[in-house]
Write a structure and sequence with these properties.
alpha+beta, Sufe protein. Chain: A, 3-stranded antiparallel β-sheet, single chain, iron-sulfur cluster binding, 147 residues
Length: 147
């Protein structure tokens, strides 16, 4: 597949997650960890809720406002971490961060699926914080849960 066709496919995946976000909304009740984060540079705002049971991310939901990259990344992240142990979720976040920074990353450890569509963000350094906002919120939520 040509680079141009791949870029078009990636844009379509990002726009699909932006227009049809997965796991968007809030949990009822108090049995979840809630993290609110924002990117003051561009105004992106995310509220992430995690239900952590027996050391695993049982459920994840988000709400917020922001650009297509920020909200699509949150949608992708909430799908990807469900069912993972908290250690695996944090490890996946590290791999995602490496990918966003253009570093080599372990492609075989996790099936990143749609998340790989965000690789193009590396061409736009100002947008990296948009893509990583929800992931940083997830890391903080796991950290808060462990305290």
């Amino acid at each position: 597949m040509s680079s141009n066709n791949l870029d078009t496919l990636y844009r379509q995946v990002i726009m699909d997650h932006y227009k049809n976000p997965r796991n968007n909304g809030e949990f009822d009740g108090d049995d979840s960890v809630t993290v609110n984060m924002n990117n003051p540079t561009c105004g992106d705002r995310i509220q992430l809720q995690l239900k952590i049971e027996d050391g695993k991310v049982a459920e994840a939901k988000f709400s917020g406002e922001g650009c297509s990259i920020s909200l699509a990344s949150a949608s992708m992240m909430t799908q990807a971490v469900k069912g993972l142990t908290t250690e695996e979720a944090v490890a996946m976040s590290g791999i995602f961060s490496d990918m966003m920074l253009g570093k080599d990353y372990d492609e075989d450890r996790f099936d990143l699926g749609d998340i790989e569509a965000l690789q193009g963000v590396t061409k736009f350094p100002a947008r990296i914080k948009c893509a990583t906002l929800a992931w940083k919120a997830m890391e903080k939520g796991i950290e808060d849960n462990n305290q």
